[in-house]
Specification:
The structure holds two protein chains of two kinds. By secondary structure, chain A is an all-alpha fold. Chain A contains eight helices and no strands. Chain A starts with a helix and ends in a 5-residue tail after the last helix. Classes of the chains: A mainly alpha, B alpha/beta.
């Protein structure tokens, strides 16, 4: 009767084992610094244009949406505050993580999946390299460090987008007021929340991508399946974890 | 059963199952030092799984596998790395790393073995070895190329160079000629014979072409030219035929050709 639960539980177990090994390898030799740098470049620098673009537009659209709501209360001067809180706490981390998951969880899964179906993973093991050490750990380190950095940039450019919309296009408020309210709205806890999220999301995106890639079977068709699976799974987990982290921060006493 | 020193590889009643289905079924054999074994069988007969089990890439569900006298059946991956250093393997289609050049691919086993940062002299030594291995397979001019720029036969040859660059005493070849035209296939087989005769390696060659076995059993190399010279009835070549995971024949070429078994006969006649 419980047969239908067998597969997901087996998958979860495999995922936890992979995650455990990947983390353990961070402190174990050999370290593949070259691979970490390459992955950081692919994931961090490679995702920069798309992250900045979406960051800009999400900031601008937030300002536009809020302009109407705030003006009903005669509070359109507070637009900077709203944009900054939503971006730093929520939109910046989640949107960036979704973009990186679309771009890199799929990239990782298809690369590792192709390596799996062409026996390159087996070849690696045959030649004395641990594929988790060589492939998974560098991607884990690179994604979990790059995603917070991308999020910071996305937050800033989003605030700038909001500024352009609120101050230049709609002329709701002065530049001084916008930046002051935006800055004052944030306390230290928000910044911690805004950086904890992308760090955890980065871990998820990298591990899900690697996990799906490494368990690919069934030739090129399997690679396609693994890629789709990786993006869907990583994206869903980003939302689930986001809710959990937000819940923890909301119930925390102010610092 | 204790293994004797001239034994390279021993399978004791090995079974491997995928989803409850046995793909290697109670297989036992011993590969002696200096011996070449040709494993014949159609697709899905369990030939590739047999080779991967020999290398510890796949763990048997029952039975024991001994490699160079070490029981590798339950060895941890880290400990396996050490035993695998003495084995070269050519994978189907070569399994070269796409992201690396031919030179980096062939240097990979040498570099991954070096636990420390190498100085210039050591790096130079590795480069020389890599060049020698590539020249052995007549691909000295391709060092800077990426695997995607090579033809199927060339990729297979780079795969042979990578498998043999560390001069392992045992080399496993997984379908070295599959999907190649007859001329290229013969070139590859000539390389295998050259590798065996010059370096005196033990080998296992998995194939579905009986001609490959005929070349291994009936020819020797003329030296570095790599041309094949007929040498019928040479000792140390054993044929194995697999069918649906079972080892149904084991013996010399003469015994193979005289086998009354219908499935074996079908293979030989083809």
């Amino acid at each position: 009767m419980l047969d239908f639960l067998k597969r997901p539980i087996q998958s979860l177990q495999d995922f936890v084992v992979l995650a455990g090994k990947a983390f353990r390898n961070i402190v174990r030799k050999p370290h593949y610094f070259d691979d970490i740098a390459i992955q950081a470049d692919v994931i961090g620098v490679g995702s920069l244009p798309i992250v900045l673009l979406t960051g800009f537009f999400s900031g601008a659209v937030m300002a536009l949406q809020m302009s109407k709501a705030l003006s009903q209360y005669g509070a359109s001067g507070q637009v900077g505050q709203i944009v900054s809180i939503t971006l730093v706490r929520e939109l910046g981390p989640v949107l960036t993580a979704l973009l990186v998951s679309g771009r890199n969880a799929s990239g990782i899964a298809s690369e590792l999946g192709s390596m799996k179906v062409t026996e390159q993973i087996d070849a690696m093991r045959a030649l004395g390299t641990d594929p988790i050490q060589k492939l998974v750990t560098p991607r884990l380190i690179a994604t979990s460090t790059m995603l917070p950095l991308l999020t910071i940039l996305s937050d800033f450019i989003g605030l700038f987008g909001g500024y352009l919309m609120a101050c230049v296009v709609l002329k709701l408020t002065t530049s001084d007021q916008y930046w002051t309210t935006a800055y004052r709205a944030l306390d230290f806890q928000d910044v911690v929340q805004g950086l904890t999220k992308p760090f955890i999301f980065g871990i998820i995106v990298a591990l899900v991508g690697c996990f799906e890639g490494l368990r690919t079977t069934g030739g090129t068709q399997g690679v396609g399946r693994a890629t789709t699976e990786a993006v869907v799974t990583a994206s869903v987990w980003v939302f689930v974890i986001d809710l959990i982290i937000t819940r923890i921060f909301v119930s925390m006493p102010a610092w | 059963m204790p293994s004797s020193p001239h034994e390279v590889l021993r399978f004791d009643n090995v079974t491997v199952r995928f989803d409850e289905q046995p793909v290697v079924d109670r297989v036992s054999f011993v590969l002696a030092a200096g011996e070449s074994r040709i494993v014949l069988g159609e697709a899905g007969a369990g030939k590739t799984v047999l080779l991967k089990t020999a290398l510890g890439l796949i763990r048997p569900d029952s039975g024991r596998v001994h490699l160079f006298g070490t029981d590798i059946t339950d060895l941890k991956e880290k400990a396996l790395f050490e035993v695998r250093q003495r084995v070269g393997m050519l994978f189907q289609e070569g399994a070269l790393f796409d992201s690396q050049t031919v030179e980096e691919n062939v240097a990979y086993p040498l570099l991954s073995r070096a636990q420390k940062t190498l100085n210039n002299t050591e790096l130079q030594a590795i480069e020389d070895k890599v060049l020698r291995a590539l020249e052995f397979v007549e691909l000295g001019h391709t060092v800077e190329k990426f695997p995607s720029e090579l033809s199927g036969g060339m990729r297979r040859r780079v795969g042979i160079a990578r498998a043999t660059v560390t001069e392992p005493p045992l080399v496993l070849y997984d379908s070295p000629t599959a999907g190649l035209d007859p001329i290229t296939a013969n070139t590859i087989m000539a390389l295998l014979v050259k590798e065996r005769d010059i370096r005196n390696t033990s080998s296992m060659v998995v194939t579905h072409r009986y001609q490959d076995g005929q070349i291994m059993a009936g020819f020797r190399t003329d030296g570095h030219e790599g041309k094949l010279i007929p040498d019928p009835g040479r000792p140390g070549v054993v044929f194995m035929v697999m069918r649906e995971g079972r080892l149904i024949f084991e013996g010399t070429q003469t015994e193979l050709e005289a086998s009354p078994e219908a499935y074996v006969r079908k293979f030989v006649r083809r």
